[in-house]
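Quick question, first post here. What does this chain look like in 3D?
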Amino acid sequence: MSTWRKSSYSSQSGGSCVEVATTNVVMIRDTTDREGFTLSVSGAAWTKLLTTLK
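> Answer (accepted):
Ran it through. Tokens below.
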């Protein structure tokens, strides 16, 4: 079972935000549709994305 973390930039009342869980891959989902699609990326890809966004 994964532990999901909501972005610190997300409001407490919901809205448009994402959650991330780390297992042996990084999983990403939309908090407004938790039963919907989940994107899985490697740890290296996630690190590259975060570095690029900074």
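Residues 43-53 form the longest helix (11 residues).
The two ends are 30 Å apart (CA to CA).
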